[in-house]
Records
---
Amino acid sequence: MNTSVTIAGVTLKNPVMTASGTFGSGMEYADFVDLNRLGAVVTKGVSNVPWAGNPTPRVAEVYGGMLNAIGLQNPGIDVFMERDLPFLDGYDTVKIVNVCGKTVEDYLEVVERLQDSSADMLEINVSCPNVKEGAIAFGQKADSLFDITSRIRKVSKKPIIMKLSPNVTDITEMAKAAEAAGSDAISLINTITGMKIDIHRRKFLLANKTGGMSGPAIKPVAVRMVYQASHAVKIPVIGMGGIATGEDAIEFMLAGASAVAVGAMNFVNPHATVDVIEGIEAYMKQYDIDDIRTIIGAVSE
């Protein structure tokens, strides 16, 4: 039974990875999950300098998921290179570093720092809805997405994955822009912008007012967008958005995803990623599937 998939020349032992921002760099989860089991670990967003993130409160539960307005808090590329990457080097898993920034130059600085590192791929976060400085514009306008993707492509020797925002009119337009600019793959969806109000205090639950919604409630939207994007481009698509079980992962792959990422469910069940891997293996046994790649995009019309 072959569960391996290949994305941009990088082979993952299985199609399951972590969604950025929900797993740190794996250190927080190493006591719960054997990181060697995972197809890939996708790190929390890394910026060129330390970011403090947004004011608190910045997390709120909602029906079917959660809202977060963390604002990409992280200690910056220097700490990441000294602490996080060496930690991940101790495991047999693909390392995908999520890169964030407020300007194109911020992104390029981090990408350049990572060129001679042990990172296998770079996921470029142009779609976080909680950074007020304007980074969201890169992920919401096709020409801006094309520009930043092409500029990163010129300096990166490593494969790049552009992480797309669902907060757009036409996801296929964004997918095509990323592909045309040289992205090796795309990942989607990032969170959907939402809001929650405390009716008793008549105040916003999040200090930022809005936050990114994740969790099972967004899965049907994510499956639809993955299906559309995978039919619009030839590069691999990594699907995410509300994946909690092996069955959820299979649904994304049938829709056209070459791999999947588990996000919010890591907060509910720290063992969720391995549960999803085992669920995929059980599905393959149930339906006599020898190679996981045969189901990618195999949904019947």
---
Amino acid sequence: MEKPGAQVAEAAPMTNGHGPRFVIDARRSRFTVQAFATGVLAAMGHDPTIGIRTFAGEVGFDADGLRAGRLTLTIDSASLSVLDDVSDKDRREIERVMKSEVLEVEKYPEINYEASQIAIARVDSALYKAAVNGDLRFHGVTRKQPLTVRIAMLGTMLRGSGEFTLKQSDFQIKPVSVAGGILKVKDELKFSFEMIANRHEPEE
């Protein structure tokens, strides 16, 4: 909850000379997808978790001026992998179906998110909240995808965290079943992220 008197500012385009640029460090970040099971696995309380391994992006952020620049994020579709403790056989089958039938990684190798409409609110001395409204390009379909991001400014590092949901059917993806129908997933997916971004110092 925001504190009384929190300052709010709309995003302004930030290019070189208009504010610090922060580059996402994927190795220190976490990005996961939670699918929700139906059928047999639902009765067992098992919802598959998918890890997004390879992604890159950046954002402009001016803490003093309460401004944010364009946010970009590119995900390697083929880098998604199962995090659950399952047999190697089941893992290979789930990932095969996910990449070939759901994501169609050969046809759509990247997932992209881009936003220039960002409103920043100061919550505390080094804590902020961002309301982001951007375009998500996923499986050949582009749709608006709003995000609410909690931001901590830690010296020359930004930490942004949040979650959002989407429906596979909105991106022309039909939920599939694997392992002989044992694993079936619902239409809705939940994404959770904790992004670490470091301030980029331009070369002189």
---
Amino acid sequence: MMDDKQKPFSLDAEQNVLGAVFIDPNTIKTISDTLKQEDFYHHRHKLIYSAILELFDQHVDIDYTTLIDKLESQNLLADAGGHDYILNLADTTPSIVNLEHYINIVHDKAIIRNMIDVAQKIAKNGYETSDVNAFINDAEKQVFDVAHARRSGDFITLKQVTEEVIKKAEEARSQVDELTGLDTGFEALNHYTLGLQPTELYIIAARPSMGKSAFALNITTNVAKLKSNPYIAFFSLEMGVDQLVGRMLSSEGNVMSNHLRTGKLSSAEWQQLSVASDRMSKLNILFDDSGTVKVTDLRQKCRKLAQENRLDLVVIDYLQLLSGSTPQTNRVQEVSEISRMLKEMARELKIPVIALSQLSRSVESRTEKIPIMADLRESGSIEQDADVVLFLYRDDYYNKEKSEKPNQVDVLVAKNRSGATNMKGFPLLFRKEFSQFRSRDMSDEQGESTGIDDLD
């Protein structure tokens, strides 16, 4: 183990930060915004800085006399180095011109020391643990907490942001189409989102048998077919990968899913299946059906893919089957943590994340079955964390005999942080037996669904 005295720190930088306060007491406003007492390595510097912060909080002018008095009143003057050491702090500081640089040195050294402490603790726990998953999750959390303390950048001026927005607008104008994100393959959906955007969390919510898994698989396939050959990580917490791929082949090859399951295919269907299989094998879709239930495990796997440059989109089926980092008795708090971590992952890895979600049973007890935000199951934080919330609704599921919208799914745009909403929704043809969604205007050439089975 590394001895504590060997840990990185800068005596000069710590002295210069403290000395700057004597040169210009107003600098404490800048210093206190970044540095905490524990960021100082030297014990006497911790004591001096703590006394300075107390004077600042009490609105007392900070100078040599007030600081000495504060330390004496706490019987800490000797431990802080005494009169001479404090008096010499201002003399050791060349100027306050480079104060920001001194602050950053102190802060960065503190982060390095914290990471060393975490590494030593992880190593110690490694010799004592018997639960590898708990050990890895705890280690990841500790490292992630330290990483979050990294020095953030300076404020960005309005001029800088304006220039960046104009640059993006010019780049968008030069594109053939209006999309700025990943093409979902559904023109109506692209109209509201301009494609799946990096850093954004998309929630697709519905009651069972509305087709949300099939819809997610259709989007996954459409994105994977883009010329840029993007990588999609699909986490299935409910179905096995063979079921998922079976649905995708059925959709891609226009082969009825029950024919595929029973193996009773015509020669034409075998040919269609062969062509579809050849096309699908070239797509960069990565499945995980290992039963991963902890959101921390999911994030860890996604980070690894991102480090390998093999991650452009994450799809999760479905959110309520995930569990939080630690067991909780309050499921609402747990789901809140999960949705927050999925949004943080989207921002950290700069990718779009799609998470499917169940709706509560309260929908079934209402006369009007069309979903609303309050139906999001177990947590209102899903609504808060999501950038886009889509509801799927099938009128023919609830009104089998009298529905005027047979084989149609209405996609309701309930929330859209960067665009318009539409609670009336836009229609898609849902060919259930093919696990296939199509635009309504393609229904004539594709043929109508026969409604053999209900797929989610």
---
Amino acid sequence: MIVVDDLRIRFGDHDVVRGVRFSVEAGGSFGIVGESGSGKTTVMRALAGLNDAWDGYLQVAGVPLGRGRNADLHRRVQMVFQDPYGSLHPRQTVDRALSEPLLVQGIGDVDRRIRKMLSDVALPAAARFRYPHQLSGGQRQRVAIARALISEPSVLLLDEPTSALDVSVQAEILNLLTDLRAERQLTYLMVSHNLAVVAHLCATVGVMSNGEMVEILSTEDLRAGRTQQPQTARLRALSLEMN
């Protein structure tokens, strides 16, 4: 479903991403981890069409990506951002946030789709006409997930989707995302600095350092400490200390 080959991204004189390669099968889940500034979010933004300054090869669902993106691709690939408050318009109700993608993409049956989507992300029907400030952080992130999924994409890009939430709420959102992937046969690409969060959701993990993907390994090998690169071992050790 996703192919990234020899991806290179440069900002001014600085190489931010250097020759990154990985692929994600349809219905699979792939996590990218690394310290701040490692280039992980920059890779995701290129796939999302939020950064056109890249070289290499990107492909989604068998379609090579160019600098411009058509409406079909925007419907097929959606993104959930880190901050559930900042990603929602403070003066728009949940109803407006969910109906807008449908109207922009010419998808009908708006009322039924919104009611079903609220149910799918475990939000009460009463939340539909509330504003972001009237919701908890976890509820806001559920709205953001609902907005991403309401146009029925096949790929979901997750940019640290739980890092702004309390630990107890993080588990709820991760379990929700796990259930939604199974129910909708979604393909996930997730970026995080938290190995435990990535291991919960993703079967395979790519470790980035200084713009390079230095190691790709299974979550099982990561948990068992079967790592090949010192950067991976260091991230794992830090994660264990934090937990």
